[in-house]
Specification:
Elements lengths: L2 E3 L4 E4 L3 H10 L4 E5 L3 E3 L4 H6 L8 E3 H4 L3 E12 L4 E6 L3 E5 L3 E3 L3 E3 L7 H4 L1 E2 L3 H20 L3 H7 L1 E5 L3 H17 L12 E5 L11 H13 L2 E4 L4 E4 L3 E4 L4 E3 L2 E4 L3 E3 L16 E2 L12 E3 L4 E2 L14 H16 L11 E5 L5 E5 L2 E5 H14 L3 H16 L19
Parallel strand pairs: 1-8, 2-3, 2-9, 3-6, 9-21, 11-18, 12-13, 12-18, 13-14, 20-22
Antiparallel strand pairs: 4-5, 6-7, 7-8, 10-19, 15-16, 16-17, 23-24, 24-25
Helix pairs in contact: 1-9, 5-6
The structure holds flavin-adenine dinucleotide (FAD).
């Protein structure tokens, strides 16, 4: 029989952007966070963690340091008993119930995949820190394989990198990783003059559809200048360990396909038995209270959040919205709930070293100014002074020294005491 425990303060499920921000904003009012990780991932810096510009540990923030007034339970919510107002939690070695007075659901989203033959077996994801580390190791392994390849076709396959999904995550990851490969090739004299093939595929008619057209056009031109092969209005049809077949009829020889084509609400949403929309997002009222529920609230990527400032469409799944929702919710939990309202101040993205785009308060910046504003904005938003400092040190080191190209894929697979 699983035990029943009483958590401190508001019970927050998920320690991502939304959950950690709610707990932090609640301050001494107190909260208990249930999260499978003891850190919050600052996802906008994930592409730089993948390329090695930033040390992976520096793009995550320890929850205990970020939310000093909150309790942390390292585990997952696995069941909900609404009548008894309790959540069942599975930790590494225990299963127990946590009761709640106020429940906040922020279980986020997962990659939205499609039933494309071979995708689940051979595609690489780009959603969390493990994905970023694996992608970096995978790309460096491709360079070693290309260096050892005995035939032209084999070399071409190893040096072809396909990204499916031309939103922020896909474009930024491609740009950062192509910088990594360009820098790493200094150490591979045999490959220095070999052509690389970077391919960006999207079903939509243009890349970065979320940003103003002029900036999107600049981003496309900048990628083309770097010889990225952009295939819009194109879909992936089949993937094997050696090839990617596209809807334009071409079959690319490749060992690398990164899937960044959108997100869907976490499957954990299903355990709560709450009202959801056609996309599976939890439906909330303007105060962020779940529709028809007195004591349950939801926000972030797992929820459909109406915004008074944009009455025609709910919030998109971004950090800046999750953060503003969290601020509103913390106030609402402290008393006198008011509707959530947030007008987006702008959007920013990097396009590799020294290049970026920023749309801030109607001002369109591109190239170096866009890159500088993007970095400055993210540095400002990253919680904790010590994290900011570590990131600045990483960026400074990257300015003056060559990129590190060690491949540490074996780190996750220790040999232990085996021979
Ligand atoms: C590669 C990438 C780049 C991005 N770049 C940007 C950007 O530049 N700008 C921007 O605004 N947005 C960006 N985003 C989007 C942004 O990361 C999300 O909108 C934001 O993280 C949403 O916050 P969240 O708390 O809802 O979800 P998440 O941050 O995903 O957190 C959800 C948390 O819930 C936990 N969880 C899941 N199931 C359970 C369970 N059963 N029990 C307990 N906990 C659970 C997860 O482990 C996770 O920690 C990016 C996303 C990605 C993937």
């Amino acid at each position: 029989m699983a035990g029943v425990r009483e958590p401190r303060g508001v019970l927050v499920l998920g320690g991502g952007f939304a959950g950690a921000s709610v707990a932090r904003e609640l301050g001494s009012r107190g909260a208990t966070i249930v999260s499978p990780e003891n850190y919050m991932l600052y996802t906008p810096m994930l592409p730089e963690a993948a390329s090695g510009t930033l040390e992976p540990r520096h793009v995550v923030v320890p929850l205990r340091a970020m939310c000093p007034h909150a309790d942390l339970v390292l585990g997952r919510a696995v069941a909900h008993d609404e009548a008894e107002r309790r959540i069942q939690v599975r930790t590494e070695d225990e299963l127990f119930w946590l009761t709640y007075d106020q429940l906040v659901v922020t279980v986020g989203a997962v990659s939205r995949t499609l039933p494309i033959p071979g995708l689940a077996e051979h595609g690489l994801g780009f959603k969390d820190l493990a994905d970023a580390i694996e992608l970096r190791n995978h790309v460096l392994r491709r360079l070693e394989a290309a260096n050892a390849a005995g035939t032209e076709a084999h070399r071409r396959r190893e040096l072809t990198f396909v990204f499916v999904g031309a939103g922020y995550a896909g474009v930024e990851a491609l740009a950062e990783l192509s910088d990594l490969v360009r820098d790493a090739l200094r150490y591979y004299p045999r490959l220095r003059h070999e052509p690389q093939h970077w391919v960006l595929v999207d079903a939509a008619p243009k890349i970065l559809p979320e940003i103003p057209t002029r900036l999107g056009e600049y981003a496309a031109k900048e990628l083309e200048r770097r010889e990225v092969d952009i295939r819009v209005s194109t879909t992936l049809e089949e993937l094997t360990g050696q090839t990617a077949r596209l809807s334009d009829g071409e079959t690319l020889l490749t060992h690398t396909l990164v899937w960044t084509a959108g997100v869907r609400p976490s499957p954990a949403v299903e355990i709560f038995d709450l009202p959801t929309d056609e996309r599976g997002r939890i439906v909330v009222e303007p105060t962020l209270r779940v529709e028809g529920r007195e004591r349950i609230w939801a926000l972030g990527d797992c929820a459909r959040v109406p915004n008074e400032a944009t009455p025609d469409h709910p919030d998109p799944p971004t950090c800046q919205h999750a953060l503003r929702q969290a601020r509103r919710l913390a106030k609402n939990l402290k008393g006198d709930p008011k509707p959530y309202r947030y007008r987006m101040l702008g959007q920013v993205a990097t396009l590799g070293r020294g290049k970026g785009i920023a749309d801030v308060l109607g001002l369109h910046l591109r190239g170096f100014p866009g890159w500088w504003v993007t970095r400055t904005y993210h540095l400002y938003q990253l919680p904790l002074f010590t994290r900011k400092l570590r990131v600045v040190v990483d960026w400074t080191v990257a300015l003056f020294f060559r990129r590190d190209i060690v491949e540490l894929g074996m780190l996750g697979r220790p040999k232990g005491l085996r021979d």
